[in-house]
Amino acid sequence: MNRDEVIAAAARGDDLSGQDFSGMDLSNAKLSKANLKGSDFSDANLSRCWLDEANLKDALFTNADLSFAVLGGAHAEGADFTGANLQQGNLVGTQAAGALFDGADLYYARPGNANLESTSFDGANIQRTIFRRANLSGADLHGAEGTANFDRANLEGANQ
Amino acid sequence: MSFKPFLLKVEMAIGEVNTFVFGCDETKEAVLIDAGKFEPSVVEYVRAEGLNVSTIFLTHDHGDHVAGVAECAKEFGAKVIAGTEKPGGYTVDTVVGHGDEVKVGNMVGRVVSTPGHTPVGLSLIFPGMVFSGDALFAGSVGGTKSDEDYAMQIEAIREYLLTLPDDTQIHSGHGPATTVSIEKRYNPFFVE
């Protein structure tokens, strides 16, 4: 599938789970509400991509560019964002329990009200990240770097 | 009339402030939304796309959104529209307020008043898309100086922005884009 085919398939509501999109340029693409469960976006360019309310469970985003991407309301439980660029990403209300953010760059990202239970941020940049009211219970923030906003976040059992 | 209203749009984070070039594909006429800085890359984009930036719309009178307006207006030969007469000391061509319309090619935007972050704050609504300035951000709202201002802002956002269709895209003065659906369901300032 090329970029145009992916966008068209998402618009039709086709099942795009388990696909290999690694290295693809999907910047600015509209993939809202798409079923992308378990798909591989490693090294893909997803900058400003619309992934709101999409099914991203267990998807791979290792080293992907997700700067300014919209993942609000998406289901990303178990997804792997290791090394991804999530600068200024919209993660508002994202359901990402168990996801990996190790080494990711979340500078000024916005995971307000997100469910980030049991996630890992080892080596992640969380400078200015807005975790307002996020559920970070059981999260591993020990190796994260930077000063973030944890206003009313649930940090019960989190490793800081 | 048949036209494609939303095909030409770019948002550029200049520093950490967003500037938007939003245009009508049929007429190539465009509006520049906020002008915090004169940015050559914006000019290059406009030239490359063959656009005519006929209008500059300023959402509110804060330096990071208006400081480049004089240079931008001169470069593009654009008229400047804002909610106050002299944002950043620049005398605008037209002062608009709640309920006014802004024409961009074959598109018509509707101005709504979203004050609080500043005494006069405007959002500009096109079908399927709203430019909210510093009133509403992804997962947040603009900073306010008093409880009264905060209450005014929240009320305006609830009444004029969160009542738009769920899939309406929201483009803010800072940070990433979002949608009405996301903000209604998850913005910590609107949900318990």
Q: What overall form of chain A do the CA principal axes indicate?
A: elongated
Strand content of chain B: 25-35%
CATH class of chain B: Alpha Beta
Level of helix content of chain A?
under 10%
Structure commentary:
The complex is a heterodimer of chains A (160) and B (192). Chain A has one helix at residues 3-12. Chain A starts with a helix and ends in a 148-residue tail after the last helix. Chain A has one domain (1-160): Pectate Lyase C-like, CATH 2.160.20.80. Chain A contains one helix and no strands. By secondary structure, chain A is low in regular secondary structure. Chain B is of the alpha/beta class. Chain B has one domain (3-186): Ribonuclease Z/Hydroxyacylglutathione hydrolase-like (Metallo-beta-lactamase, Chain A), CATH 3.60.15.10. Chain B contains five helices and 14 strands. The interface between A and B is medium-sized, with 25 and 21 residues.
Task: Write a brief structural summary.
The complex is a heterodimer of chains A (160) and B (192). By secondary structure, chain A is low in regular secondary structure.
Present the secondary structure layout.
The complex is a heterodimer of chains A (160) and B (192).
Chain A: H1 3-12
Chain B: E1 8-14, E2 17-23, E3 29-33, H1 40-48, E4 52-57, H2 63-66, H3 69-76, E5 79-82, E6 94-95, E7 101-104, E8 107-113, E9 122-126, E10 129-133, E11 136-137, E12 140-141, H4 147-161, E13 169-172, E14 178-179, H5 180-186
Top keywords for this entry?
heterodimer, A: 160 residues, little secondary structure, Pectate Lyase C-like, 1 helix, 6% helix, B: 192 residues, alpha/beta, 6-stranded mixed sheet
